[in-house]
Amino acid sequence: MAIKVLLDTHVLLWALVEPDKLSPAATEIIEESQNTVVVSAASAWEVAIKFQLGRLPEARMVIEGYHNHLQTLRTLELAINSQHTIKAGTLNATHRDPFDRILAAQCLVEGLTIITKDHAFIEFGVPTIW
């Protein structure tokens, strides 16, 4: 059965740079052509910021060919809209990371499951796969 998933930022990076870090379930879902795999525009922003701050030097190749990499993975890019931002701002959760909050909001608004190793998304009520 085909599913719709959003990749957490670390999953996107691992899929592109260190695929051995992905769980078998994550790899299978990403590679299954019947699935819809989505990447948030917020992930590009997060990667660029962390690269600029020197916290993710290996992200240079991801940034330089970002849209080509998304095509290689057969992913769709999900833009951020006002429904997403309002939901992110009104989530009843103590987790404050703005990138996690926007990804959680996008999943809730768009009916997506997130592929992540981060347990914080459970607090938001987002279905997760790892």
TrEMBL record:
CDD domains (UniProt xref): PIN_Sll0205-like
Give the stretches traversing the membrane: none
| One Pfam assignment | PIN
Q: Which residues form the PIN domain?
A: 5-124
Q: Which domain of life is it from?
A: Bacteria
Q: Which residues form the signal peptide?
A: none
InterPro entries recorded: PIN-like_dom_sf, PIN_dom, PIN_Sll0205, TA_system_RNase
PANTHER family hit by this protein: RIBONUCLEASE VAPC16 (PTHR36173:SF2), RIBONUCLEASE VAPC16-RELATED (PTHR36173)
What name appears for this protein in its UniProt entry?
PIN domain nuclease
